[in-house]
Amino acid sequence: MEERADTRRTPGNGLCPPWVLRGYAVLADGERGALVDPEGRIVWLCAPRWDSDAVFSALVGGGGYFGVEPEDPWHVWGGYYEDGTLIRVSRWLTAGSVIECRDALAMPASADRLVLLRRMRVERGEARLRLTLDPRPGFGADRLRDARLEGDVWTAKAGGLRFRLAGAHRASWDPESGLSGEVRLRKREEHDLVLELSTGADTPRLDPRRCWQATEEAWRQAVPDCSCLAAPRDARHAYAVLRGLTSSSGGMVAAATTSLPERANTGRSYDYRFAWVRDQCYAGLAVAAHGPHELLDTAVRFTAERVLADGERLHPAYTVDGGPVPNERGLALTGYPGGGDHVGNKAARQFQLDAFGEALQLFAAAAHHDRLTPDALTAVTVAIDAVQRNWARPDAGLWELDERWWTQSRLSVVCGLRRLAGALPGRTAERCAETADLVFAETRRRCLRPDGRWRRAADDDGPEAALLTPLARGCPPAGDPSNAITRRFIEERLAEDGYLYRFAHPGIPLGKAEGAFLFCGFTMALAADHLGDRVGALRWFERTRAACGPPGLFAEEYDVRQRQLRGNLPQAFVHALLLECAVRLNDASTLPV
Fold first, then answer.
1. What is the pTM of this model?
2. Contact, 387 vs 415, CB < 8 A?
3. Which one of 21, 433, 471, 562 counts the least CB within 10 Å of its CB?
4. Residue 268: what pLDDT?
């Protein structure tokens, strides 16, 4: 069993101790997400939407959780996702029983109402399970009011939300600790809990069996077959994660959580419950490499809407429905160990040129599949205009640092323009080609060293893994000598033990400055494959995809020495790049679209 950061919670002591990040599983329905710890406690859930205040925030010290766990303390845990879904089955083994708890956020989802399904089942022996429901809206600031049992359903209100729990009529209510009770099951017996949180009016009571059937069918329709790809099970899981993080409005959150630290006690704790344009494009490009599936269309729609709305003032990030990201502010919470709680994200105010480049690549991929809508075609023109007016401006770059003349940003734009030039007819194609030649010539003049290696920025000769992103997608073309030279330099300077780091921190060894960046490892695999090094590509792919926890989820960073995940969970663009690698590294894969 993994070590926990505190003693085991016992009823009434108010503790819900944190686990290392690789132990958590995620549930998601597109509109919000929940984290489940190995003991069956849902310790993170924002409602009604991704960026709403948390109802369960025990993960970051705010209190509130929903527990279904064995009474017998002498047990070990396990679990799995049902293939191609975010339906999670927690599994516990005691001395005399095998217990499972099947969890899901019900689908199809509604933006103003979430339904959380929990089904307990004993596979062997007999078991007692402890039930605890202690919602605390507002990151722990509020508690349930007017809790009452109506028939066999508990109802309550708090924080502008209506709560309804079916299946716990034998539980007892305490104003300080919420609902608590016990469920006893014999072999093959099942018991359902259905938790509803809504902002609207009451609706008829839900039938759990129908909810499960609808959820299973929704996942079957949402996640395509990946059996012909490299690592097909991981590819389907990655697709399910991307689908679970994508709202019906089209926006895909970067991660389900906020303030899980990238590095302990360094202030690097951020809120990723928003839709980054760049990350959305990465996901769309990964799906496009596989085929014209639904997530390609949603990515194109959301990106086009943002470009049309804001033009050259395009923000790096938005709420999933296209609204502005709130200013960053702190929360008066303990926080996950080593982190500091924040909501909002100041990076949303930056200028990031590469977001336009990735958007242009996404639109080109959509055109390849004949999925470029009229709005997206108009957005192409707006994006080209924005690039022509702003490509020479310093920007914050892929890593959202200080504004400089970052090489990767310009090469990303060139890549997008050239792909569009090959996908669209007439004057638009000519504009793309002309602008691409202009940007590339100046970038080459300022950022390519005499020895043929690309600089990190016009004023920085250091190694930079971000340069692999345009290289992997064909800019410069595969035969350009600078590709191999640059890739070799990055590998020599930023790789250790088969993992890749973003850039060098002066005077600090790679693994001590930050964790290995999993996005970069997968991008290196794509770059190696694009340059004809299939063995190297597979080696990078296999090593990087091993950096996950038991639930198969990836965070942004990986602490190689401690074999631990770092940062918010699950990180969407890492799963997107895994999916794209699985497509490209399949022996039947084609050239990038």
1. 0.95
2. no
3. 562
4. 82
